């Protein structure tokens, strides 16, 4: 678990995440800023992209961690294996205690969301 969620009981994590959603958050993650980073093998993802995809696919499934969420701290933990140094931080209006939380949704939820977005766009 990321340090910010350690000690939070399983049933309390939903409350913590709900509260975090209310905090304005602006974060960035880059493969190396303005420094050169390798593109990797032709026809394959860059090492940075490969680690990002791996982190998202693994869904931060550490012991005791809800598999429906991943935080920036989770993603960064995958990036430490790279030969390059990733850059990350906050920018703009980032409120204290804000956190990037990526929430996975079931395919049917995404279809409903796309329909809702389509309806709003056509109004």
Keywords summarizing the entry:
single chain, 123 residues, alpha+beta, two-stranded antiparallel ribbon, two-stranded antiparallel sheet, 4 helices, 4 strands, globular
Describe the protein:
With 123 residues, this protein is α+β, with helices and mostly antiparallel strands. The chain is globular, with a radius of gyration of 17 Å. It contains 4 helices and 4 strands, in the order αβαβαββα.
Structural topology:
Layout: H1 10-21, E1 27-30, H2 47-58, E2 69-71, H3 72-79, E3 87-90, E4 101-103, H4 107-122
Antiparallel strand pairs: 1-3, 2-4
Helix pairs in contact: 2-3
| Low-confidence runs of at least 5 consecutive residues | none
Which sheet architecture does the biggest sheet show? 2 strands, antiparallel
- How many β-strand stretches? 4
Helix-strand category = alpha+beta
What is the radius of gyration computed over CA atoms, rounded to a whole number of angstroms?
17 Å
H/E series? HEHEHEEH
Task: Give me a quick take on this structure.
With 123 residues, the protein is an alpha+beta fold.
């Amino acid at each position: 678990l990321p340090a910010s969620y350690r000690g939070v009981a399983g049933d309390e994590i939903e409350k913590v995440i709900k509260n975090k959603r209310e905090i304005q958050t602006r974060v960035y993650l880059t493969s190396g800023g303005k420094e050169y980073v390798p593109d990797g093998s032709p026809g394959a993802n860059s090492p940075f992209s490969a680690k990002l995809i791996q982190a998202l696919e693994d869904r931060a499934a550490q012991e005791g961690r809800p598999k429906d969420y991943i935080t920036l701290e989770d993603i960064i933990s995958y990036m430490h294996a790279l030969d390059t140094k990733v850059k990350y931080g906050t920018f703009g209006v980032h409120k204290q205690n804000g956190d990037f939380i990526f929430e996975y949704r079931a395919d049917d939820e995404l279809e409903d969301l796309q329909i809702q977005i389509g309806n709003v766009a056509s109004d």
